[in-house]
Amino acid sequence: MDFREILKNRFVILDGAMGTMLQQEGLRAGELPESYNIEKPEIVYGIHKKYIEAGADIILTNTAGANELKLNSSPFTVKQAIEAGVKIARQAAGEKLVALDIGPIGQMLEPLGTLSFERAYEIFKRQVEIGSSAGADIILFETISDIYEMKAGVLAAKENCDLPIFATMTFQEDGRTLMGTDPMTMVFVLEALGVDVLGVNCSLGPGELQPIVDEILKYSSIPVMVKPNAGLPHYEEGKTIYDVSVEIFSREIYDMAEKGVAIFGGCCGTNPDYIKDITRVLSGLKPVEIKKKNYTAVCSSTKTELIDDKIQIVGERINPTGKKKLKQALIDADMGYILNEAIAQQKLGADILDINAGIPEIDEATTMVKMVKEIQGIVDLPLQIDSSNPEVLEKAVRVCNGKPIINSVNGEKEVMDRIFPIAKKYGAVVVGLTMDEKGIPKTFEGRVKICEKILKTAESYGIDKNNIIIDCLALTVSAEQEQAFETLKAIRAVKEKYGVRTILGVSNISYGLPERELLNRTYLTMALTHGLNMPILDPRDSQMLDIVRSFRVLANIDKGAEDFISCKSINTIRTVKQEAADEKNIRDVILDGLKGEAAHHTKELLKTKEPMEIVNSYIIPALDEAGEKYEKGEFFLPQLIQSAETVKKSFKVLKEALKESEQKINKGKIILATVKGDIHDIGKNIVKVMLENYGYEVIDLGKDVPSETIVNQILKHDVKLVGLSALMTTTVANMARTIETIKKTGLHTYIMVGGAVLNEEYAKMIGADCYGKDAREAVKIAEMYFQDDF
Fold first, then answer.
1. Of 200, 316, 717, 754, which residue is 20 to 30 A from 411 by alpha carbon distance?
2. 284 Cβ contact list (under 8 Å, min separation 6)
């Protein structure tokens, strides 16, 4: 059986919530679901059979948490858990399909956490190898909130087995994942990596998921799957109850099916009754035909640039050619200088950043990988990886978080045969230069022929023309004056004949001539009128930016001149340019997340300010501003954490200064703990980072913490504010018991709770004093508590 064959005639149905069913069979809070594969296989087998009888075509193995980090303290190995899980599913499935279920690793990846991309890859690789060898038919990644983690998993699957890959992420009510990825970005990144099916699971109920699903369907050219929760959980009489009935669930599923979703299942709270009913309502219906979408898209982890007639500016400042300071920074490994260049270009209006480390004095591959990791951790722009060395390109695009551009190939067969396999494997867009072993053709017709050769060769590697951007090459008019117009004619011709997007390094035109800026600006205008999509330029040249912004208005691209007006005036752009050139202050450093500069700026402030004045008048206001940007959607969690980590560097300097006066930066003590039975602590750790960098002393009790331990620590440290975390529905009951235990002691302790399965109503129901929906809200609660002391 092949899921693609099923889709030709009907919808594909997956199973529902293994965890919900295991709870009903006696799974205790904190007990590893995977342990049942070994200790109680008959129960897991019985659950699989119930879902198959309900109509499931694909059942997921009971292995979502079977990785070496989550099973580290268990008596079972990853191999034992996965092999047993696949064996049970295989026995139950009969002719049905078995998907190896792989969930999140449970730790944040660098730069937000300590888990490297390479380590994440190895963890996933081990799961894939064991599961595929054991007999799984499909590799299914689900409940992932970090697109970077998902990339590591997909690469591990692609490189270590030949099974179909399903990939679903979990989204919040704001339409983004915890790490800030939007549905459109998810689609383009996962399609580029070559998954067979993509979609969303867990997250919310089916009704709340509709807008997210609509966005996915708008951009996806492959089958979309959806596995919603049965709504929100409620804790009643010791049981977890979900608020979306079978009938409502099926009705929402039917609506999604009519829109184009092809594969359905259920997540938290969905027992076999839900699967049976969606099988019923979809019976006799055929899936909507999937249509190929024609977008050229490049992405960071949180932002997608659709390369169309908008005109995207590619910032050229991180290229050492002709830049002595940047060259020296590369030699000195001065990442601070490079990061400042990236930030300045983003602020000045660049949409994409070109990154080049091609100088002979350094190890280009090592430097490029470091640059990619550092830059993508601090700006949200897509990256253009610029190198003539295939090894450098592969290493850089592998660790790039998003869908990058490779710059470049040309019409030489040898070059295309080296670069196109890299682009195909990692899903990168490729710049094609209209030159070959004979050089650059003198006529525009010659360049068009090379464009055709590049497109045909790309197609032979399975690369669509939407993932090729053509550079018709601007030559200096001081040497070949007649070539300036040939380039423009070539731009127009390749767009009209092949419908491809175009890119051009405009400033090459004026090399060796006086009044270079005037020539560059004039040629940019000419190129835009001939169909140029992506000028490569220096964003510090405000007049070049003026031309692009003005062109967008006059060409009816900037509707209502909104972007043009938002700049207020040409002088606004120049003011931003001047501000970017000025020396940064501590506020800028914190907002930009420049950890390497925090200590220096703090020491400078200490020359004229007292430590506590710096904390209260400079650092906390800057961190507040970062929090406000997060609430407005201008920052996402990665930027918020980078700002908080930058503050940590400042506090290290300030604490040393305060030793002399015996003062401390301590706004109050707070205990944080993940409750008994829950081994997830990503959310708690994020809250910890934020609270500590607001000056609170955080006593972190870790995960799987008994209520008695929490009470003892409250007494020991005389703590008045406690934060409890629970991710799983199975452990919310323990959270309720912990709250009850704390309150029975008579301690005047204020309790805030948080976690993916909670909401404000649920928090009140289990006795909490308040609900911290995210790290920013937790800080507000702490500020309110310690300011007013309630």
1. 316
2. none
